[in-house]
Amino acid sequence: MSLGEKDxxxxxxxxxxxxxxxxxxxxxxxxxxxxxxxxxxxxxxLEEVRTLTGLGVGxxxxxxxxxxxxxxxxxxxTLVDRIMMGGDTQGLDTLKWMDARSVADVxxxxxxxxxxIVMAYLDGDQAADVMSxxxxxxxxxxxxxxxxxxxxxxxxxxxLNDILEKQFSGSAGSQTKQMGGVKCAAEIMNNIDTGxxxxxxxxxxxxxxxxxxxxxxxxxxxxxxTSVEDTGIQSLLREVSSDVLIIALKGSEDELKEKIFKxxxxxxxxxxxxxxxxxxxxxxxxxETAQREILTIARRMADSGEIMxxxxxxxxx
Length: 317
What we know:
1% strand; globular; single chain; Annexin V, domain 1; mainly alpha; two-stranded antiparallel sheet; 62% helix
């Protein structure tokens, strides 16, 4: 917000879908920021990157103008209310910029195999949201097909690009693409609402008990964090806000709570205990959302090699 619209737009062009979404939502929520806060924040930033930046104050039209500059008039007007799409994307990549309901609408009437390929292409959390927006009767079929996917021929990807709207068309390349599989299905199940996940798992085991067990073994749930090494927990805690952590721990096992307390300073652990005791009843949906947020961070850190996750029956990543 302090860089000015043109410079900020240049940066925005290089961010991914989730980054644009989170950053846009944060900017939209800013109001009445004190000058002291701006100066302190910029000072901390400059100390880390050792560079210069301009200071400016945004207005109500800042976000809209920046998106128009970065993405063009049509895309910006379509997305200004929910800051999702952007950039130079083609084919399936464009779907990653869309909200889950819109993706579900795009693939709702396609063949289940097409739906499975789309879902396997998306990140697990987005795919889970899309799954939740699909009719209940097709979820099981799609998840079973995702589990059975391995390599997708370029001709199939090209066909998928062709059936999507014109703005989604693009080159599929000449190499087969590895996607889907049991691990992909497990990641989607990790991110989907608990009620839907439980129902799907029961249905999968009725059809193929071995497959259901494979998926379940690969699923990493919140309480599995007890299996993460202490150094990994310490790294994870540095990335998680205290507010989210408190809500997430309200629904966790005592073993995990003790694991968290052990990897904090004595003072921080005491404060967290007090906050947990003082926190009133929390809706289950809020606890699940907080836990999913922490698991998303944990998986991101695992993917980048910062920590190692080891769940029930899961090999170390």
